[in-house]
């Protein structure tokens, strides 16, 4: 680049709204010269160019920034600062003299201010030493800026001496105020410079260490000057408003931005430096500004801004405000002070401001106020709790009662939560914290009236929130046409109230909460949508209280439910109403609310299933409503599908709980299920599958007429499924769905662990014998059906998965427990061999091995090492050997399979043919794997090898001899892998080392001493590791020793 004219041409091209094609080349050219030794000269020329545009001047300022960042030491900072301040002062004077004409230069001024800030940071950070010949100090850039800008003009030749003089010059307070008061433009620039410096300092300190000295300089100099300027300006704003002289004050936004920047810095600096920056005077004026208003004209000019500032403080560091300020704010926001019986007139501002926001529908500002108030309340939550409920408080509680009254009024804020008001939403957090604090109090500290007081208080909170969470408010949000984010917020609000209700149950108990909700639900006779919304809100809360309660063991609660006459009727009415209103023709709001109605009612119905099953009529009503509601579903849209899903889940839960009581419904269920699984059915696959499971539950418990009757119903269902498969040989999805239905049927036929079916238990021998013989030949029918399907879909992983699940249903049961799918080991192995021969290993083999693992777990006691050897050879080392070797997922599956055998019958693996020829050498190699799941599996394998309590004496002797022979190689491989492992994987290797040290303490010391030196040159770390491992003797403390060694050898800092 030969001359200034060429540089300017390139800069204009760079910033052109229509950049040339070679823009990247231009950018590289300019960046090269910016970083060169001529960069400072170029910057000065660009900033001095009289005809230069703002783009050219800005590039000059940017070039100074690049030059600053290329200098790693203090050398040259003086020259750079001189050029920067010369042009900053020049441009600032131009702006002060004619702001309208020079306003576009503000971007250049701000960049030069930022450059000056960086120089200031570097000069006051203890990194290196400035040579004596160029030593200079700069403690207060703000005062330097004011002095330079207030000069009428400074000749460039004299600027060096002037700057050196002003760098150490201080300005008395009166003179400073006189300077900034003489010109609004100089005032605003000074505020801007203070804001830029302090914002850049927050960014600067986050990337540096050892800046406490810099914080000290800021505290002693810049802080004092800035707070003087800020406080003066804040006072002028107040005076201007009170005198209706708004033009005499600079723009308030400048002041508030500067105040915000200093608050953020002061918050950060409290944890980074020794000094404490007291902004109390600033806060005091801010609070005065917040309360300034003209009620006649409805003006609250500064309230919103100050509320936002205070809200940030309360949310991040409320201790920045001293006790007196917090007390003052408490009186303003709440009209009452917890520590004083006096009443504050300043609360009138709060009432008028809230009314102003409500009347003018300024809901965003109202939300900001709510956030501020509740964050403030959270500060004193524990103090409120102690004063309310413990003997720590004094006898005069009138002011505290008034305080609580205000909190309740705030919680019960009129308007729609989330959409129009946020007080009730945020107050939920306050009440939850207060309730949790109460529940954690020591009961001995209670006042005599505390339990009654707490029950009364939290009972009122419940009564406030029940209307707040009603769906009518959600309906208003939908009708307002707001985006879905507000709907999600309202759902989150409802969820928060559930947490609150759950916490309050510990205070109110069943008598004052659960039973009241049940009685209230049963007392209402809905005549409108509003009544139904009221019922839904109570059901929504009640479900949270009952969901973890075992109603079969709670006769008192069942009695309460039965005494609530219309309880079940109203719950079922919600289901019916939701299903009637779910159609798209009823509008978006009706669809959304219908889903909520069905979700709440079906969840509660499933929760009280243990109660419902005790009343035959109630159970019949429930099933009728669920059947009719399911019949109305046709998967017409997402809402319809979701409602069908909710109904199906509820039906499944009731059938599982009431399988004995629903025996008379068997014919109805079979008829419905047969219709559902037809190809023409519009019911979702999920519903088909889960409804088949429901049917299976009832068949499983249908034992009163012996196994023949049970088998008859089973055969009927299976034949329906078979017919469906045979009638649609080309419909992959239909066949897969029907096979999944079959799997669900098989799962449902597994008896529950706590079964109390006396009829079944008394006939158990007959059922065992019957299903052992299998007269209806259902096992054969099932196997033939599966093979028929797999002859076409044998390569499809989803079909392999579901058929393996069907074949393995009996494997989780004991030998004595009958099941119609009880296949022998030989039948299962034949099935697995056929699948293995035809599957795609990467997708199908995992499901095959899962079933194989279940076979070993079930029949392991009758297996020999030769059987295991055959399995290993056939499924992993035969036709799929290459796939297993090259696919980390399959490798991990093979290792896990071997591990499962080591955990149950380790002798099968230890004495198989491949133990020494394949397993030990290959699994040793796998220690160097980089995949976490392989590392987890293989280190678990070696841990089981070196220390396995399931080993027989013969196993132990064999393995010990092998470990001693492999020890040096095993230790070397493990430590090498450990050294190069990710930190998150260290625990896997540590567990193996712990087991090795515990089992082979003498040998492992020698193995480690040989293995560690070749890994890296850090003998001290190696020695410490061996010593610590031997001292810990396999305890968990060994993990810390391993971590320290790993950090040390990888050159990483130790934990402190």
UniProtKB/TrEMBL annotation:
Compartments in which it is found: Nucleus
Biological process per Gene Ontology, one example term: protein import into nucleus
Cellular component GO terms held in the UniProt record: cytoplasm; nucleus
SUPFAM superfamilies: ARM repeat
Domain of life: Eukaryota
Keywords, comma-separated and alphabetical: Nucleus, Transport
Name the record gives this protein: LANO_0F07514g1_1
